[in-house]
């Protein structure tokens, strides 16, 4: 029990250090595809930020170990198998300073170490748990809206226990009709 608590404490500390290091990166990176400029008010100072609105493509590798993976048009995530098309659109930031955390959650793309499952999540607990089990974070600064509005739709999360496969879709019926178990709403997307 003490060993588990110690490992969780180490993982939490590692996660916080990674967040601090990420927030200190320079902004000299190139702008991602399809820059969208927004202006926000922050403590009476106008702060300009550029987000990239990007397609997220869904890939499918069938067979006995079916797998859905997801990749943004800017290269975040991973695509294994046949590309099925655009699953949804969402924003990607160049740096953590550009993120309005009242509007967005960071959306992490996590790949199972044996490439048998792929998870999209905003949950810090789930992220730490999966990374501690060897899952790889294959995303950086992908965002998902916290609330509906302006044409956004729910991004549903489904799970197929038979194939250990997660499915993310804006179409609730797609997951149910494919025999997947509904797990909830990940956030709101276009």
UniProtKB/TrEMBL annotation:
Residues 56-189 form the DUF5648 domain. It comes from the Bacteria. Residues 1-28 form the signal peptide. Keywords: Signal. This is DUF5648 domain-containing protein. It comes from Aquimarina atlantica. The lineage of its organism: Bacteria, Pseudomonadati, Bacteroidota, Flavobacteriia, Flavobacteriales.
């Amino acid at each position: 029990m003490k060993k588990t608590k110690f490992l969780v404490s180490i993982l939490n500390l590692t996660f916080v250090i990674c967040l601090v290091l990420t927030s200190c990166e320079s902004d000299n990176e190139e702008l991602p595809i399809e820059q969208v400029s927004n202006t926000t008010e922050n403590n009476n100072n106008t702060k300009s930020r550029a987000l990239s609105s990007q397609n997220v493509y869904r890939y499918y590798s069938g067979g006995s170990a079916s797998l859905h993976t997801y990749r943004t048009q800017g290269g975040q995530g991973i695509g294994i198998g046949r590309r099925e098309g655009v699953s949804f659109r969402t924003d990607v930031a160049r740096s953590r300073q550009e993120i309005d955390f009242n509007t967005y959650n960071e959306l992490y793309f996590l790949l199972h170490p044996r490439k048998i499952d792929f998870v999209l999540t905003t949950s810090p607990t789930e992220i730490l748990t999966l990374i501690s089990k060897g899952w790889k974070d294959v995303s950086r600064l992908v965002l998902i809206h916290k609330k509906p509005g302006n044409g956004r739709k729910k991004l549903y999360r489904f799970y197929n226990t038979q194939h250990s496969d997660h499915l993310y879709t804006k179409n609730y019926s797609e997951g149910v009709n494919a025999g997947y178990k509904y797990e909830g709403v990940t956030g709101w997307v276009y």
